[in-house]
Amino acid sequence: MKSQDFYMEQTDSSLVKSLIVSNYFDTWLNIVYGYTNKNFVIYVDLYCGPGEYENSKKSTPALIMDKLNSKEALMKKAKNKLLFWFNDSNPILTKKLTECLQTYGLENIKFDKPSVPCNPMTVFITNYELPSVEIETLIRRLDFPILAFLDPWGYKGISKELIDMIVNKPYSDCIFFFNYNRIRPAIENENVIEHVQKILGSEGLKNVKERLMMATTQYQKEIIILDEIIKYFSNNYRRYVVPFRFLTYTTQKQRTSHYIIFVTKNSTAQKVMKEIMSKLCSDTHELHFSYIPPNPQLSFLGIDQSDESKEKIKKRLLQTYAGKELSFKELYAKEGYYNVYTVDQYFDILKDLEIEGKVVFSLPPTKKGNDRKLSADNLYKMGKVKFV
Ligand SMILES: C[S@@+](CC[C@H](N)C(=O)[O-])C[C@H]1O[C@@H](n2cnc3c(N)ncnc32)[C@H](O)[C@@H]1O
């Protein structure tokens, strides 16, 4: 796609994507600020674009600045520690971004790779084309927490190795664009095998190919690919991978265009991201949230398999935790590897089990007033769940 076409107008899907990132930015800065003893934290956007669409709608970099400007406490934290690194291979776009950032009063803009010493709120702007060894070296050297957003048009530059480099650092998370529409056919295409292996791994690619032979519908195929992605990017369910699916319409039906995928080691981060995504989604499946663009004629095609998924979760909970008692927080952190349900949704699933007499909730007896009320919030903060 040509840059000038993409940035003409913001689609609903692009807005949802930018909201996922900018809403999470707020949480990340709060979490990281509270815990890190590093002098700096950095927001990294390696495919940043101009910050604004031609029709003046704001995209991710500008929405992030709006977020900071709208919250005094957040800005105070930013002014203490935050750095920005925006990269885009197209210098025309980074020039536009610079102008956009200047309207936010950002004065410390350096057209150079990130380096310290520098002042908080310094913006570094570069024009590397990914994949890039220099980018990888720079990321490797950054010795402070990172929130990275990787949003290419295709899948050029996205690799498990790069994402590991980011997420392996303390308090560092990554949000990336997974181009399902392009990767799905690429799985069968020997000419691009190298690129696909960088995303799925050679074993993952082999597994996907084998499993795809058993699938009969397009949706089954998609879930198999997603399942392998989750397994691989979560390092076999040892960190959290939260996918958000975007659908588009062809003349007759809906089909998946891409996913936005969040990777984190932090259980609070996955909890909050699931809440952010669930507010922006029109359908929740066991493995993903979905944004289905409005199209009244086709709304009956919305896929809702949540009831079936919830039954599966109940069954797994009863098998895994039989006879055990644990805090709801711990239970949610353990379960978070396997599905995208929010704390509220998990609470509802557990309430069903409580009604069936299979689970007992408890809150500390000393609590008074609202703290004694059995709610998802209270149970998460201080409650226990016993599987009988
Ligand atoms: C989907 S757009 C990013 C949109 C942006 N994240 C936003 O929210 O406005 C992809 C951007 O990546 C840039 N780009 C394309 N190929 C690239 C590459 N190989 N390396 C770095 N940037 C690239 C394009 O110029 C384009 O601005």
TrEMBL record:
Pfam families per record: GMT-wHTH
Domain GMT-like wHTH, chain residue ranges per copy: 297-363
InterPro entries, per database record: GMT_wHTH (IPR054339), Tcm_partner (IPR031009)
Protein's name according to its UniProt entry: Three-Cys-motif partner protein TcmP
Classification lineage: Bacteria, Bacillati, Bacillota, Bacillota incertae sedis, Caldicellulosiruptorales
